[in-house]
Each structure stands twice: as structure tokens, then as C-alpha cells.
Amino acid sequence: MTVPVLSVRDLRVEFVTRRGILKAIDGISFDIGKGEVLGVVGESGAGKSVTGSAVIGLIDPPGRIAGGEVLLSGMRIDNLPPDEMRRVRGKRIGMIFQDPLTSLNPLYRVSEQLIETIRTHTNLSASAARKRAIDLLAEVGIPAPERRIDSYPHEFSGGMRQRVVIALALCAEPELIIADEPTTALDVSVQAQIISLLKRLGREHGTAIMLVTHDMGVIAETADRVAVMYAGRIAEIGPVRDVVQNPLHPYAKGLMGAIPSLESETDRLVQIPGSMPRLSAIPPGCPFNPRCPYVFDRCRVERPEPIQHSEHRVACHLYDQSSARSEAVA
Amino acid sequence: MTENSYVEVKDLRRVFDVSKPWLNRVLEGGEKQYLKAVDGVSFSIAKGETFALVGESGSGKSTVARMVVGLLPPTNGEVVIDGVSMSSRAALAERQRLRRRIQMIFQDPYASLNPRWQVDRIVAEPIRAFRLIEREKEIGERVGELLSLVGLHPADGKKYPHEFSGGQRQRVAIARALASNAEFIVCDEPTSALDVSVQAQILNLMRDLQDQLGLTYLLISHNLAVVRHMASRIGVMYLGRIVEISNGRELFAQPKHPYTRMLLDAVPDVGMTGRQRIPVSGEIPNPISPPSGCTFNPRCPFANERCRAEIPPLLGGVACHAIHEGRLAIDAAA
User: What is the CATH number of the domain that holds A238?
Assistant: First the structure.
């Protein structure tokens, strides 16, 4: 088997606060292969964005990586010194954030920002870098790039700005792109354009993409595999079609049922009682147990480890063969 | 319009002056600039019905909502609720009685509740403002009742808004809206700031309350799936105009206007039925200088000379020359 582009092993991220240590990420593992799009989905506070930041080494104090490892094409990157990590970031890992306006410097022309980034990571001359920048803008679908390149960020619309940010992320042809809620600030019609752009780039360049979003629809359209996160852990990970149509974990089931659909008409949406626990008060055992309709004694004491179940990996005692409850939900 | 309509919006129009200051205009030259946020919007809502307005940012849907509740005076047109015109001066007393029955729920439950007030004071405010109940003890009982109605505990009244999660805050906002025995509630993106599982809780609650109390809703949303789940009739807005208006089922089964079709195609599909989408092109134009004729014409694959020159009227529930002329078949939608 080939080495995955990104491999995360038992990653743990903690935040040290006055009230004690908060475990934002508590032992998650996943791989992303070449050209693959992994969707990371979950509600606010599930730890999706922290996962992205941890991979790219942007966890600032009081946060810290407390354990586990991050491998980029087989090379360990979570323990690199800051200046070496800086070279990996941008060159080998690109990042796209939610709000395109805050990821661009409003005082510099788009051309300056693109050319600076290209020249930092490659040894192109200024004129060659400018040509490359124009090519990149054309590739992400900005009309008349040779004219638009000298505009300032505020002269672009939201969708066009997000395209510029994507072009910036692509400057050094990274192996991995981390896209954190890339379409959340955009309207649906523009969102669809950005999604198909990301998909095309992944396909054409073989770039691995980690797509962090709370929008299940975006994941369903874009990702090959999806990881459902809850309270800093992966509840379920598997091929996107399987997870969306046949979720195993009770939380994933609830999440899918809660989404109103355009296709089907339901009278009531599935309702998960309660809300995500605070990081300071994660219940013992399975973190989902107070909200789970299938909860039994073991869930309250023992933390479920991920179990391979057909093509999914699911962290739930219900699917453990040694547990008598396995047929209850099957 | 029908006899039994509870809310009637007639030819509503709102223009904002977005000109530069007078001195700049004199020194730098330049004309006054106007932005037509809403132009010629008419619809009616029957009692106990949910009517939804959908559209992208800048389509004017929130401006309509603000005019309907009276937060913003319309430039032209009028809003008639239960037979009383909201803009006529004569019916002042009646209008004040009517106000009590209209309430609004806003998008951001963090911004719409006073952070320095305890929840029971927030919920009791409409009761006190309209002097619905005089005795303090009875107000307290009513607040407890309202909190239980929206799925909170009466003891939660002693807490401050920051002690609640987003979904619970939106419940408090709903309790406040119901406090004055409102019959008509305008909901401006009530669940956009919430996570999906919490959104499901709030949408279910809104529907339960409608069944229980016979509420009438005007729902403003950009989320087509939410709208489909909630509304019996839907108006699709684009650049300040309603381009299509029809009952919910029909709109989704048989969208007519090219913009509606594009919008439906653009929604990411959770069901993953393998639907082929028509690629979407372009973005909403600048509303200060909208395109001439049909405002959708630069993005429309069916536009012709007439579309670029003449604004299409809303006929048969759709404002599109191509449909009216029979150039575009109604069944053509995927």
C-alpha cells in the first residue's frame, strides 16, 4: 500500500486553562490518500477546526499537542522546529479559511500577495512569478485575470475572493490542502461553484484535501470519505455514501435525520435531545451517552474504541461483538 | 387577493439613499445614488399559514420582513394585517392594538437578547409594555408558563442569556415573541446561526407551536431545505423582486423561473440521489446599478432582447418573459 499523504495517529490536543486541562482533541486517527477528499463534519465545538490547525501546526498556547503524531507523506511534522514547519506550511500544505476577507491583506494588491507567496516557495523570477499568478487566477475561474490581478481584495466579491484564497493556497502546488469551512460565508449559487472548483483541483493535481465543514450537504457532494466528530473524537469514519445513507453511530444517525432534505417530505425532523457537552464537562465513558437513545450501562463507564464494521470505523459499544446489544440497532 | 388573507402586502417598495455626503458630491462631482432594496413586492398570507421568502444575500428578503413588522417604513405600498393598514394615520388606536399581535424572531440569538437582563425580565417585557397583566405574581406565572411552552424550565428565568446555548437562547426569543399573545410572527433566518441538530429542535418547536396556537409565520431564509420543510407557500426573491411565487410542493417539483431552477440545482444534496446539476454561473449583481429589464438576464441562459429591455411582470406566479412567451417549457426542469 502506498504511503498516505496525511496520516494522523492518536492525536491529542489540550488547552491549559485556569479551570484545568481541556481536551479539545482526544485521540483521533485518520489517513488521507493522494487525490482524496476527506470531509470532517460535526457541530460547533466538536474539534473539527482544531484538528485542521493541529495538522498545520498552528495551535497557539495555551493550546498544545499533547500526544500522537502527524505524518505528511511519511515524514513526521508535528515535532518540527517552528522555522522548518514554516517551510512545510504553504509549500507542502495549503490552507483555505472560512472568511476570505480576513485571509487576504486588504492593503496589498492581489498580485503582490500571490507573487510574494510564489517567490517564497519557488525560485522563479518576478516576471515568471507574475505569469504563474495569472495562470493560477485563470485556473480558479477568475475572468480576465491579467486585468484583475492588480485589484485590491475589496474590489472582489465574496465568491471571487474565495477563489483568490484558493489560488494562494495552490501557489506552491501543495500535497495537501486544508479547507476550513470554505463555503460557509458564501451564497448557495456561489458555494456550488467553489465546491466544483475544489473537486476539480483535487482530481487534476492529485492534491489531498481535508474539508472541514458543518454542512453535511457540502460533504455529500464533495468528499470521498467522511469523519463525523463529536466532543473531540471521531464517532464514525467511512465512505461518504455509506455514512450518509447508512450511518451506524447513534450520533451520526441523529445528525443525518436532523437535516431537512429537498427530496423527501418529513413531518418532523429527528431531534437529538440536549446539546454537545462543554469541554470542561465531558461525561465519562462515551461522550455521547447522555443524549444517546440506545445507551446502556457499559457506555457510561467505558470509552468505546473505534471498531471496524464493514467499511466504516465506528466508536460505539453497540457494534462490539462482545456486547450483547449489537443486534438492537442493526 | 383572497378574502381570508390575514396579512396582505401590496406593491411594497423601499429605496435607500446611498449617495456620498453632500460636500463630496459638490467637490468630486457625482449624482445622488439610490439602492432599490425592494421593488413591487406583493403577497398575502392566510391565517395559520407559513409563507416563506427565499433568496440569496442582497435579494431584499430581510428588508421586506422589517417593513412588514413596521421596523422600517416603506417608500411605497402598504402592509395590511387583519384588515388594518399599517401605514394609514387614521387607524392609530387600531394599529397599536395590532402591534401586540405581531412579533419578530431574529437571526442572532446572541444579539437579540439583552445580556444584562435575566430571562424572566426579557420574557415579561412585552407583557409589561402592553399592560396585559397588572399583578406581578401573575406575570411571574405567565412567564413560567411561556418558558415551559418553549421547552425550558420555569426556573431558567433566573438565569442570564450567556448561561444558555444558542438553541436555548432562540427558545427564549420565541417565548418573548409569544408573551404578548402574538398571532403573527416574522422569523428572519431563525436557525441560520444554529447547528443542524439544534436547528431541528427549533424547527420542530415552531411547528408544534403553530399547531397548538394557530400562529401565522412569515419565514425568511436562504436555506431552501428549511423552507421546504416549514412553508406551505414560498416566494423566491432576486434583487428586490419576487421572481416566482407558488405553493411549496409545486415549487420544488416543478420550478418555473430560471433562477429558481438554478437555486434548486445549487443546493448540495444530502440524499445523494446522483442528481446531475446544471452548472451555475455568475453572482448576484450590484443592486445600486441593476441590469436593465429582467434583473436576472445576465445570468440567464434563456435571455433575449426583450429580457434585457423590459421588466417581466409577475403573471401566473412567475416573472419571466421566456415562460410567458412559451419559449421555456415548464417541464424542462431536471
Answer: 3.40.50.300
β-bridge mates for residue A210, sequence order? A38, A178
CATH fold group of domain B5-101+183-270+277-332: Rossmann fold (3.40.50)
> Are B252 and A216 an interchain contact pair (Cβ–Cβ within 8 Å)?
no
Q: Which stretches does DSSP call E strand in chain A?
A: 6-17, 20-32, 37-41, 63-72, 75-76, 93-96, 176-180, 208-213, 225-230, 233-239, 307-309, 312-314
Query: Which triple of cell numbers denotes residue A112?
Result: 503582490
CA distance B49 to B218: 8
**B251: nearest CA in chain A?**
A262
> How many domains, in total, are found in chain A?
1
- Domain membership of residue A147 (yes or no) is no
**Closest listed residue to residue A274, CA positions, set B200, B208, B156, B40:** B200
A34-72 residue pLDDT tens:
999 999 998 888 888 899 989 988 888 888 999 899 999
B229/A269 touch (CB, cutoff 8 Å), yes or no? yes
Q: Which residues pair with A308 in a beta bridge?
A: A313
Instruction: Kindly state whether B276 is in contact with chain A, defined as any CB-CB distance less than 8 angstroms.
Output: no
Cis peptide before A62, with omega less than 30 degrees from 0?
Answer: yes
Task: Name the residue among B56, B203, B284 with its Cβ closest to that of A269.
Answer: B203
For A165-240, strand residue ranges (E) read 176-180, 208-213, 225-230, 233-239
CA atoms within 13 A on the CB side of B147: 23
Q: Tell if the CB–CB gap between B284 and A187 is shorter than 8 Å.
A: yes
Q: Cβ distance B204 to B151 under 8 Å?
A: no
Instruction: Give residue-wise pLDDT tens across range B116-168.
Output: 999 999 999 999 988 888 899 999 999 999 999 998 999 999 999 988 888 89
Distance from CA of B176 to the nearest CA of A (A): 21
Residue B270 and residue A216: Cβ atoms within 8 Å?
A: yes
Q: Which residue has the cell 395559520?
A: B48
Answer whether A188 sits within 8 Å of B56, measured CB to CB. Answer: yes
Its pTM stands at 0.83
